[in-house]
Amino acid sequence: MTSRGWERFLSERDKEHDKLRGKQELAGFGEKPALVLIDIYYSVLGLEREELFESMKTWPGSTGLEGWEAVDKTAELLAVARENQIPVFHVKGMDNIIKPWIHRKRGPSTMSPEMRKKGMEIVDEVKPIKGEIVIEKSAPSGFQGTPLSFQLVSLGIDTVIVCGETTSGCIRASVVDGATQRFKMGVVEEGVFDRTESSHWMNLYDMHQKYADVVGVEYAKEYFQRIGAAKKVTI
């Protein structure tokens, strides 16, 4: 189902522990899913498809080609969601936040105001269409301080499938908050991305063990198609 790429980052002790206590099968999804895309904007990808370190020369927060690969897989899933009338939400960081949540030193910015504005735009490959809700956030989690939960509850959503970035940051924060609110959470392995491999894979592992089902994009597509087919039968 998934590549389980996190295995190469586990110690022998971790692997033995996983055999004894690790998650053996999926917890499962419900019958009313939504697709939530988190922070898929140009500032974390760049305007051109470039290798990580080349892209970082212009966009310091870039995730490079791995990010673009995840965007392409997300676009595939997004198309299936739309075809099957799965509700889609786009969540992005709020522009011009007074105090950012990231606690790290930042060098002087060489970006023009125009570039910074462009950086906050959702990329064309997954840009919202009419009827899809865009929610801005001022914290890592898509749930914290936003109407996302209210919107999901109003639609009777029981399952939230997420794609976006970063796996170790805003994706994880959103997944933990979603699980805390008792939504069934799903993370699409090929649809999430990060700046460092170890953070990406170990956070996928941890979310899969505790808060979500980490599934492959083909699994997620089939799930949406099954839900869509069931809708057609009841109409």
TrEMBL record:
Keywords for this protein: Hydrolase
Isochorismatase-like domain sequence ranges: 66-217
Protein origin, superkingdom: Bacteria
KW tRNA processing (keyword) present: no
Pfam families linked to this entry: Isochorismatase
Family statement drawn from the similarity comment of this UniProt entry: Belongs to the isochorismatase family.
Entries under PANTHER family matching the protein: ISOCHORISMATASE HYDROLASE (PTHR43540:SF1), PEROXYUREIDOACRYLATE/UREIDOACRYLATE AMIDOHYDROLASE-RELATED (PTHR43540)
Stated name of the protein: Isochorismatase family protein
Provenance organism: Paenibacillus agricola
Lineage, opening ranks: Bacteria, Bacillati, Bacillota, Bacilli, Bacillales
